[in-house]
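Hello K.,

You asked for the raw outputs rather than the summary table, so here they are, unedited. I folded two proteins back to back in the same session to keep the settings identical. This is the first:
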Amino acid sequence: MDHTRRSIVFAGTAAAVIPFFSFSATAKQRGVVFANRRGAIRGYDPVAYFTDGKPVKGNNSFSTEWNGAKWSFASAENLATFEAAPAKYAPAFGGYCAWAVSNGYVASTVPEAWDIVDGRLYLNFSLNVRTRWRVDIPGHVRNGNRNWPQIRKDLA
């Protein structure tokens, strides 16, 4: 690869990564669970990923506070299921982008970019990033598990 092409590749990579890094400053203010004004997972029901196999919007009538964030559910049954075992249903890496965490930083997520792997819910920044995540899920999980303790400490 010649120098000009390397510069173009680097510039393109930097442009794709800069929004993630700029997000990390605001994520740090939010805490160890990614949440927006609607709450964790942007107000979607974490239990529904397991029971319905798809993202389902939560209802404010069925909500709880856990790990510093508001969690909403589609039904009282899903709320009770979550409250009985929140760590089982809450997304890995505090709901931050699993691909980003595997690469050492945090980024927001969208409810539609998800996977359940070995009984854990993983969310990603976008459907495009989920495609990157799926190239090597075991490797990304391993890297994310290695990076998450320090990232979590930095977010706290």
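The second followed immediately with the same parameters:
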Amino acid sequence: MTLEAPIRSRDYLGPCTDTRIWDRFKLRPGDVVLSTPPKSGTTWSQAILMMLIHQQAISDRAIWKDSKWLDCNFRDQNELASALEAQDHRRCIKSHTPFDGITYTPDAIYIAVYRHPVDVYFSLERHVANMNSDFLDFHFAESPAENFSRYLDNSVTDMGTDDLTLASLCHHYQSFRNWAHLPNIHFFHYSDMKRDRRREVLRFAAIMGLDPSDALIDAIVEASSFGQMKDVVRMANRPTESVFANPAGFFDAGTNQKWLGRLSQEQLLAYRERLSDMIGRKDQRWLEDGSTKD
């Protein structure tokens, strides 16, 4: 029997994720659920979405800080849910959870954002190295070659994207792509946002049924530049109070093709073979470079 709509069919539990909160959290019509694998453009997308929701283009973290990561496992989830429930504006809910772990309703909007899987790997490496805590260090505990092999070879577990592997990234992608025919499921790519941020801001607005002025769109494009975002995080955090040793480093370098000069031809070949084992050629091209629309 073919399902007519997605259902939340499993839980993911890991160092960063506990999806059981979805059982008691009620979505509202018009809610935007933003789900991405880690280091794929999550905060960047949050900022754009919240500026559109508030119809304000300002370089101020406060405008997008209330987009809560609902199923975060290292925060008080009841407080996160209560903060979202208290919001009287349109909500944007952050998650890194695959689609089968999220509540579905046809009245909400689901946005999934992806990035080249090897760029994701090197951003993860730098992200974990920048953390003040060590609870994710086991992902990068070996030599650089062994760490990359682990990223390629390990399978998906009940931790979901907390696995921080190519398989968990592809599982997240496939969980959404299986339902791409639904009108409220939308796909964005980090590379497209870098190539033409204005076009992608307009896509976000259209998906939410908004018709902002050209002036507001231009202002949001400027306010969501990589330099502006990095400065906002740097000014909003003190290193001694942050999860990160260098808060501005949360945004890394914002570049693509991070593997140049760091991976051998053998490693790149192993990556391509592993990726092709998990997803088809068309999906592989899109996952690496974007450009295909919904």
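The longest strand covers residues 109-114.

Happy to rerun anything if the numbers look odd on your end.

Regards,
P.
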